[in-house]
Design brief:
With 146 residues, this protein is mainly alpha-helical. α3 runs antiparallel to α5. Strands 1-2 form a two-stranded antiparallel sheet.
């Protein structure tokens, strides 16, 4: 990978997967706290698999949306950031509403926030405006008499 925009985006998504996994390791296996949530009427432990899958899906979906916005809008970074912030607020309903206890709520909310703290600036700053969507520059008419 050459390290251009694609390389930065890959690293951003990788970081957004690694950071909540590290938080899960510290709060789960290291300290003995098992973050858990109520799913389908029963309390289930949140393991490494859902942490990896959830953050990877969020990162790839965010990247895909940004790529689409770069094709259709002149200000993809701004539009994407607003959408990402709304998605963060909506995603917080999970840990705030379904966590099994206060400690799980704190850990799961922190995981959502750390993913957002990596993806939003990392992908948002990499946005490139669309040439097709950017307004065309108007060239002033030349008066041949002057």
């Amino acid at each position: 990978m050459s390290g251009g925009t694609g390389g930065r985006r890959v690293l951003t998504v990788a970081g957004a997967v690694a950071a909540p996994l590290a938080l899960w390791v510290v709060t789960g296996p290291v300290t003995g706290l098992d973050p858990s949530a109520e799913m389908g009427g029963e309390v289930q432990r949140v393991g490494a698999g859902p942490v990896i899958a959830g953050s990877l899906i969020a990162g790839l979906a965010a990247w895909g949306l940004l790529a689409l916005l770069e094709r259709v809008t002149g200000r993809p970074g701004r539009v994407w950031t607003v959408i990402a912030l709304v998605a963060l607020v909506l995603s917080m309903t999970g840990p705030l509403g379904d966590a099994a206890d206060g400690a799980s709520m704190a850990v799961l909310a922190a995981m959502h926030l750390v993913v957002a703290a990596i993806l939003i600036p990392g992908l948002g700053r990499s946005a490139r405006p669309s040439r097709a969507a950017a307004p065309a520059r108007r060239v002033p008419d030349r008066d041949p008499n002057h």
